[in-house]
Amino acid sequence: MAYTALKHLHMLTVVITLTLFLLRGFWMLADSPRLQARWLRIVPHTNDALLLFAAIAMLVVGGLNPLQHPWIMTKIVGLLAYIGLGTLALKHGKTKATRVKALIAALGVFAWIVAVAVTKQVIPGVG
Fold first, then answer.
1. How far apart are CA 23 and CA 111, in angstroms?
2. 96-119 vs 70-87: helix axis angle to the nearest 10?
3. Average confidence (pLDDT) over 57-74
4. 43-62 vs 3-29: helix crossing angle, rounded to 10
5. Extents of the domains making up the chain
6. What is the pTM of this model?
């Protein structure tokens, strides 16, 4: 698969990930029983696996080593932070206040990851 096709697949799955996260976040805030729907235990994880596949494939096809490209390593670290905060926001936060703070923080990290991807800078706007 060509690098450009992988990049487009990656960007599409990023948009789907954000959309699903926002939807689940909204339902969490509203205490909606929809958050327990079976498809929500399958679709987001399937999409995220596809997103990860596209990311790894882009690294392989593009001959990119994250250790040689700090912005890529920054995205990986940001992804781990996003996953941790997202899990806290949607599942493991003990109080709604904790879940809301984690949701906001996860969205901030998500925005940072996108900014890093677009600018290819560890700190977008600097350097």
1. 17
2. 160
3. 95
4. 150
5. 1-64, 66-127
6. 0.90
**Predicted local distance difference test score (pLDDT) of residue 126:** 82
Question: Is 89:106 a contact under the CB 8 Å cutoff?
Answer: yes
For every residue of 86-112, DSSP letters joined together read HHIIIII-SSHHHHHHHHHHHHHHHHH
Of 84, 83, 71, nearest to 114 by C-alpha is: 71
Taking residues 93-97, report their average pLDDT.
Answer: 95
DSSP 24-88: HHHHHHTT-GGGG-GGGGTHHHHHHHHHHHHHHHHHHHHT--TTT-HHHHHHHHHHHHHHHHHHI
DSSP-derived 3-state class of residue 113: helix
Q: Please, which pLDDT band fits residue 127 given cuts at 50, 70 and 90?
A: low
